[in-house]
Amino acid sequence: MISVEKLGLAFGSGADLHKVLHEVSFSVAEGEAFGLVGESGSGKSTVLRCMAGLYQHWQGRIEIGGRALGRKIYRERCRLVQMVFQDPYGSLHPRHTVNTALSEPLHIHGIGDVDARVGQILKKVGLDASFRYRYPHQMSGGQRQRVAIARALILEPRILLLDEPTSALDVSVQAEILNLLAELRERDGLTYIMVTHDLGVVVHLCDRVGVMQHGRIVDVQPSEALVVGHGLHPYTRGLVDATRDATGRAAA
Ligand SMILES: Nc1ncnc2c1ncn2[C@@H]1O[C@H](COP(=O)(O)OP(=O)(O)OP(=O)(O)O)[C@@H](O)[C@H]1O
């Protein structure tokens, strides 16, 4: 369903040219959850940002359902691909109620039935009607991330780009949000690409994982391979071992 071919991106120019992505290629099937892992600065978020239209000066080709994705954010694209960020506080407007945050995309896209749609999406992400007129500061981190997920889903996209969606949350809440994401994918047949530094999250939620180092994909594996530990690229092996050392147990 998604094909990324030779994605490249650089910042700066001349002597200050800093190449951040080097011919990144991978594909993701419809309904699949694909993880992107790798050390800090390896380019994971940049890949998502190119796909979301937040960076437009990339090279290469991104196709969704056989059609090339343009570089800019446009109406049709918003109904196909949405992104969820790490920090729900930053991604929600502080002076907009949940109702405003969720209605706005519907108004922009000329979609009717706003009241009913907002009610349904709140229910879908596990928030009752009392949240509808709250502001971001009147909610917990987990509740805010539920609203951010609801906002990403209100236009019924087929693909969610998830950039460390649980890493800003308390450990106790992380599992709730991961379970919600798993449930939503199952129910609606969504396709996910998820950036995370947590191999446990990959094993829990993703079917396959792409491993990035210095702006390149160095390994693609089924997620179980991280648990079994066979046939891994040496860099992937190192990430798995580091997780084991840090937690005293396997990534799963
Ligand atoms: N707007 C920008 N201008 C210049 N360099 C940038 C910009 N955005 C990202 N970079 C650089 O691109 C590289 C990749 O960053 P990116 O955020 O994609 O890494 P990451 O793997 O997601 O890291 P992390 O896990 O820390 O979020 C880094 O070296 C970063 O400094």
From TrEMBL:
Organism from which the protein derives: Massilia terrae
UniProt keyword list: ATP-binding, Cell membrane, Membrane, Nucleotide-binding, Transport
This protein's name: ABC transporter ATP-binding protein
Family affiliation: Belongs to the ABC transporter superfamily.
Gene3D superfamilies, sorted: P-loop containing nucleotide triphosphate hydrolases
Top-level division of the source organism's lineage: Bacteria
Entry-linked SMART domains: AAA (SM00382)
Iron-sulfur recorded as keyword: no
Keyword field contains Transport: yes
Domain ABC transporter: 2-239
Single Gene Ontology MF annotation: ATP binding
